[in-house]
Amino acid sequence: MRIGLLTSGGDCPGLNAVIRSSVLHGIKSYGDEFVGFKGGWRGVIEGDYIDLPRQSVRGLSREGGTILGTSRTHPYNHPQGGPENMAKQLKRHDIDAVIAIGGEGTLAGAKRLADDGIPVVGVPKTIDNDLKATDYTFGFDTAISIATDAMDRLRTTGESHHRCMVAEVMGRHVGWIALHSGMAAGAHAILIPEHRISMDQVCEWVEQVHSRGRSPLVVVAEGFIPEDAEEALAGKGEEEDGRPRLGGIGDWVTRQIEAKTGIESRNTTLGHIQRGGNPTGYDRVLATRFGIRALDLVHERAWGHMAALRGTEIVKVDLAEALDGLKAVPAERYDEAQILFGR
Ligand SMILES: Nc1ncnc2c1ncn2[C@@H]1O[C@H](COP(=O)(O)OP(=O)(O)O)[C@@H](O)[C@H]1O
Ligand SMILES: O=P(O)(O)OC[C@H]1O[C@](O)(COP(=O)(O)O)[C@@H](O)[C@@H]1O
Ligand SMILES: [Mg+2]
Q1: From atom 1 of ligand 1, which residue's Cα is the shortest distance away?
Q2: Comparing 2-138+279-322 with 140-276, is the CATH topology the same?
Q3: What's the average model confidence in pLDDT over 210-214?
Q4: Does ligand 1 have an atom closer than 6 angstroms to the CB of 244?
Q5: How far is the CA of 76 from the centre of ligand 1 (A)?
Q6: What is the mean pLDDT of the chain?
Q7: pLDDT value of position 55
Q8: Which ligand is nearest to the CA of 169?
Q9: 172, 227, 270, 307 — which has fewest CB within 10 A?
Q10: So which residues are the catalytic ones?
Q11: Any idea which ligand is nearest the CA of 113?
């Protein structure tokens, strides 16, 4: 078969490892040929792609980013979008199937296209770990390791000055990155989108920690909404599609802590550092296994399905399952973390 790969949505360490393993498995096991669409769905719509021979994926599993580039092009709303044009482009370039690697937005597009007759399978990716149908997505472990390292560093400088240190991490709708990196770094408070909490409570934890001679570390997810606020802080404008650009909650929390407790405080926003650089060993393995399974799905002609992790197995799931709401942090997981907050 001749198969096209694409990466779409926010990038994430491990995308290249998926590309590599699909290509190697296809060439070695089935005699397939590969192309890579450039810039997500845009590449399919415009017939813009590169050939992916075996040597093009050499050494790729350790490289961050995506060699294909990514975009947030909408497969239907683009002027030349829609399944008829895509089917024509695939036919013109003799491409039999598409492997779409993306998050819930990209996979929603893939599902709709599969329902409209486009031969497409999915691979789930997101550093936020918010996709329901899979236990983990690659990129998450790398983000945790980067954030944990950053917080370890914040703690040594914080302790030296006896300051309260705040770290703002990614997590638009869910707090998995905040929960895991905060727990790993021994945070004294973790603030996540799923759990409303008052600044009075946060300040109580901060004061307890400060008064026993430690430097408090507060981890806040970008999508955290304080108890008396209406929505997440989005002080950085909007995306093309009108989606608000989140950010600023770390600064806001820091100013509140300083004003309410008088403890000198500093914010650090980790931002895209969490998404850059080489994937961890765990993410390389997960991404590699997803790529292999996705290629098998193509040969099973399992259009509208994706690879997913369940326990230690890589399984096939319907894209509809992946799109059935986000995987939020359960209340029990937050209660468990909360045992370690404050005093
Ligand atoms: N329901 C949908 N149907 C088709 N395309 C969609 C849908 N939702 C989102 N998209 C497209 O997918 C792109 C990628 O989604 P986004 O949420 O930004 O990234 P991710 O795929 O990482 O979740 C969006 O910018 C949009 O163009
Ligand atoms: O700066 P960008 O690329 O718009 O992305 C910001 C968003 O991407 C993420 O890192 C991951 O989101 P996706 O999984 O939807 O790609 C979010 O945590 C963050 O809100
Ligand atoms: Mg998304």
Answers
A1: 108
A2: yes
A3: 95
A4: no
A5: 10
A6: 96
A7: 97
A8: 2
A9: 227
A10: 128
A11: 1
Ligand 2 lined by 10 (C-beta under 6 Å): yes
Tokens of 250: 């770390």
CATH number of the domain located at residue range(s) 2-138+279-322 in this protein: 3.40.50.450
Specify the residue with its C-alpha closest to ligand 2, atom 4: 10
Minimal-distance CA residue to ligand 2 atom 20? 172
| Percentage of the chain modeled with pLDDT above 70 | 99
> Which band of pLDDT confidence, cut at 50, 70 and 90, is reported for residue 343?
confident
Q: Which helix (H) or strand (E) holds 3?
A: strand 2-7
The pLDDT tens digits of the residues spanning 163-194 come to 999 999 999 999 999 999 999 999 999 999 99
Residue 89 is assigned to a ligand binding site: no
CB 215, CB 257: distance < 8 Å:
no
Q: Which atom of ligand 1 is nearest to the CA of 109?
A: 4
Runs of H (alpha helix) within 121-175: 140-161
Dihedral sign, Cα of residue 205, residue 208, residue 209, residue 210: positive
257 pLDDT tier (thresholds 50, 70, 90): very high
Q: Which CATH number fits domain 140-276: 3.40.50.410, 3.40.50.300, 1.10.150.910, 3.40.50.460?
A: 3.40.50.460
ipTM over 0.90: yes
Output the CA torsion 140→141→142→146 (10° steps).
Answer: 100
Which tokens belong to 186? 């021994």
> Which sequence spans correspond to the domains of the chain?
2-138+279-322, 140-276
Mean per-residue pLDDT, 263-276 = 97
CB 340 within 8 A of CB 217: no
* Closest listed ligand to the CA of 108: 1
Read off the pLDDT of residues 3-32 as tens digits, 9 standing for 90 and up. Answer: 999 999 999 999 999 999 999 999 999 999
Q: Which tokens belong to 140?
A: 């998450």
Report the pLDDT value the prediction gives residue 44, as an integer from 0 to 100. 98
102 lines ligand 2 (CB under 6 A): no
